[in-house]
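Posting here for the record, re: 7GP.
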Amino acid sequence: MQITKEEFKKELEQKLDSQFAVDVEHASLGELYSALSNVLRDGYAPNWRETRIKEAHEGKKQVYYFSIEFLPGTLLRSNLLNLGWMDTVKSALKDLGLNLDDIAAKEPDMALGNGGLGRLAAAFMDSLASTGYVGNGNGIHYKYGLFKQKFVNGYQVELPNDWLQKHNHWEVMRDNKSVLVHFGGQVNLVQKDNWMTPEYNGGYSIKAVPYDIPVVGYHTGIVNTMRLWDAEIPESEEINYPTIDDRRKVEDLTSILYPDDSSYSGRLLRLKQEYFFVSAGLQSILRYYTKDLKQNDMHNLPKYVAVHINDTHPAMAVAELMRLLVDEYHIDWDEAWKITVQVISYTNHTIMAEAMEKWDINMMTQLLPRIMQIITEIDRRYVISLTGKVAESVINDTRIVNNGNVQMAHLAIIGSHSVNGVAPLHTHLLETEVLKEFYELYPERFNNKTNGITLRRWLQIANPKLSKLLDQTVGRDWRTDSAKMLLLQDSYKNAKVLKQINEIKLENKEKLAKFIKKTTGITVDPTAIFDVQIKRLHAYKRQTLKLLHIIKLYHDLKNGIDHPKRVVIFGAKAAPSYTYAKDVIKVINEVANVINNDASIHGKLKVIFLENYDVTLAEKIIPAADISEQISTTTKEASGTSNMKLMANGALTVATMDGANVDIAKAVGQDNIFIFGLNKDQVYDYYNKHDYKPRDMYNSDQVMKETVDALIDGSFSKAANEGRVLYDSFLQENEEFLVLADFESYLQAQKKIEENWHDQRSWTQKALVNIAHSEEFNADNTVARYAKDIWGLKKLN
Ligand code: 7GP
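Prediction output follows.
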């Protein structure tokens, strides 16, 4: 539905009047946000309804993306953009003396995820709707999103992120679509009507209530649904929960998002959360299949339904689908297994060992007795199917139940027809190292699907000026057909275009500088190099290596060795229980304090650690970046996606040959990226030979020694203890992240960056090449590959 300016103004006035009894002139920004989002709802509601009718009518296969995390950020501007209302609304608001950005800033960031995995899930939702596929999200309606990060005396402090407090204007609660999820008790199998039927004794049910969030496609008229489940007490059981405290215990199930992206302690609540959204999701899928699509043959399920499990958190979908098929629909085990494997597919997002989920058998038996029985049976049959065919050690290494644990990755792989990694190097490592034995058993299941990003958000929303420049140089078509961005290369020698790219970057940097001033009180020079590292704080991502570079620059400046002006900008949350990561934050903050307040270096170096990195903050930082830091220990970063967002905005990448950096390097060519560090073979050599001796390096390299020593010699006295922790970690024999091994090579790369910075024309040309080639990482293309190779989807007519 399109809208004219005048129509929009009228609608907005009406909403303000009916919701708040105010007129435009007297409305607060919060009221304007609420009214504006309601006008938008009216705009897409018909499409949402029609999409559902069309889905049922055409009966095309649908994918359900099961993810314990979704990180959509804010939705006002992306809904405006995707609905095709952006320009009209911006200009109408201007007529009224209002600014869209001010109003949009009132929307809480929907941070129902930790990092890359959650953001990818949200990107896929947008891309499915924007390219014409029916794709549904299935997740948890957390009351509290990822914690709000504050710094107090340089330390990270975590505050609750009460994003729902002001109401989520987009969601619709659909009580009539609720389902019950059962926990606890005991299960006996009894013969009934010729069928082994489970009889449940005890335990309790929780009502799963869906909150549907619309996913508006970009100019497609399609509005898909992201369904997030909330926990309630079933009306029939209210009597068992007489006090508010009793109730809270149940409802706490969906209270908090686990603030950890690659390691966490096995907590019962987490296990409950996993089963809760998996069971609710599958039950609602089968209800739709039988009731709405009126299908009665479960054997046809794979023709209509694909269930994708985003990492192992939803891996219980394998057992739960078996339970539903066998227990509820009375399908023979073998048949049910075939159906399950055809329906389910799995993506792995990390090779970090501590992220490999396993659950204690006793815990699982107590909480989910029937699921544990089913998993045991899947495991038993798996072992039988391989006995005598492969070495016993292979069976032991790959079976689902071993050493008292359920191995979730094994369940996911054995129960899926497709297992994919998220960048070629990552997939290769899965095949040859991490999941080698599985790859030998099921080579046909393994495939790569390189990650992508929502270019629309990172260009059209976050960087409207650069988007306009693209319109002028390559034509507006790039907005729907990102391959057209490659045409920007025709302007490689066009002085006018290069000048415009520079001007836009400078404007974006000025804007960020203002934000930095406002939030930290620190003045930064917008003409300096803006050097950006934004991602979760993790040892393997090596914010520490950046820190060492900062210290080295500082020493140089103190010693009269000149460098171009630089502002280093960090954004990163540390998992609350990850003390090393929190120590890194403290040290960076104290190093920043010393440097930012040292008049003797004349403001040549500034270090800014912005609080509370989230999608909203990313939208401010990314358009203003000159340098994109992608400096993980090679082999450890599965893909990375901030690398893609930053290149799209014309930042030049300094990177190890890790994750998707490899693909970025290939796309832009060696001249347009700064590569350094150990390659994967060198890294594995160290790991296999156990002969990494950082202390020898330190003792034989004066610069390295001075730099590292600064952590313990009193230079940054307010972080003496934490500095010592970092110091010790770097020098530890066989230190896993090989920080010092890459130090020298990183300095060389940074030196090259400085040399290049002096030649602004060639710098901007490199930026131009990066912008052009970012089209390769459009999530629309990624999703198209999933749709074709894994899910077997067809677009809606
Ligand atoms: C991340 C990976 O670290 C990152 O390299 C990748 O780009 C992203 O997934 C999307 O594929 N992994 C996680 O966020 C994560 O939580 C633990 O992994 C399960």
